[in-house]
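Design a sequence for this backbone.
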C-alpha cells in the first residue's frame, strides 16, 4: 500500500478514539436490532430502537454506520419458502432468561446462525457454545441457511459432549430452530429446548 514501516506502527499503536469505541458499540446494537427485525428495518426504525434502549444518536449517524457496515433493509418478497415450514413447532419457553453465567459445564448451551459475505456468495455459519467456558462445542457451515445447518451443529455438540442430559439449549425463534426435525433431535438427546422472546435479540446476545 506504499506506507512506511514507522508510519504503520505509529497507526497500529495509536489508541482507539472514544468516537470509534462508541461507533463499535452502536454497530453491535444495530446488527442486533436489524437481525431481530428479520433484516426489514432501515435506519429510522433502528434509530428508534436505539433510543428506546437508552442511546442518544441521530438518524444520520445510524444511516452512516449501516452504510459503512453494508447493513441494508431488504425488500420483502411476495413468496417466501421456509425450510420445513410445514413441520415447524410452536416456540419453546425461555428457560435461560438471560442468565449467561453458569457454575458448571453442560448446564446451558446457546446457539445462533450468522452469515458471511464471500466472493462465491453468502456463507452461513451456525455455532453451539457452552455458557460455562464459552467454548464452541459445535459448528457447521453451508451455503444454505436451512435446518440441516443447525442439526449438524447440534449433532457435533452432542457427539463432543457425549451423554449430557437435561442441558438447556437456547436459540432464537428462527424456523430452523423451531423445525420439527431439530426439536426431535433435542428430545431424543434429552436436551431442554429454550427460545428467546420474539423480537428480543438481547435474550440470546451472548451467542
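Sequence:
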Amino acid at each position: 500500500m506504499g506506507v512506511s514501516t514507522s508510519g504503520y506502527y505509529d497507526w497500529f499503536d495509536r489508541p482507539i478514539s472514544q468516537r470509534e469505541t462508541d461507533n463499535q458499540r452502536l454497530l453491535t446494537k444495530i446488527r442486533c436490532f436489524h437481525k431481530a427485525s428479520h433484516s426489514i428495518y432501515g435506519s429510522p426504525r433502528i434509530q428508534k430502537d436505539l433510543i428506546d434502549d437508552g442511546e442518544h444518536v441521530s438518524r444520520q449517524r445510524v444511516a452512516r454506520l449501516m452504510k459503512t457496515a453494508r447493513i441494508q433493509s431488504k425488500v420483502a418478497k411476495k413468496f417466501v419458502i421456509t425450510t420445513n415450514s410445514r413441520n415447524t413447532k410452536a416456540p419453546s419457553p425461555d428457560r435461560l432468561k438471560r442468565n449467561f453465567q453458569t457454575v458448571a459445564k453442560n448446564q446451558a448451551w446457546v446457539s445462533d446462525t450468522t452469515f458471511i459475505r464471500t466472493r462465491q456468495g453468502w456463507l452461513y455459519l451456525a455455532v453451539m457454545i457452552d455458557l460455562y467456558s464459552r467454548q464452541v462445542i459445535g459448528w457447521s457451515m453451508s451455503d444454505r441457511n436451512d435446518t440441516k445447518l443447525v442439526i449438524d451443529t447440534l449433532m457435533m455438540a452432542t457427539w463432543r459432549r457425549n451423554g449430557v442430559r437435561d442441558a438447556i439449549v437456547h436459540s432464537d425463534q428462527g424456523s430452523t430452530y423451531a423445525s420439527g426435525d431439530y426439536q426431535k433431535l433435542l428430545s431424543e438427546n434429552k436436551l431442554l429446548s429454550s427460545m428467546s422472546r420474539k423480537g428480543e435479540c438481547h435474550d440470546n446476545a451472548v451467542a
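The chain has a mean pLDDT of 87.
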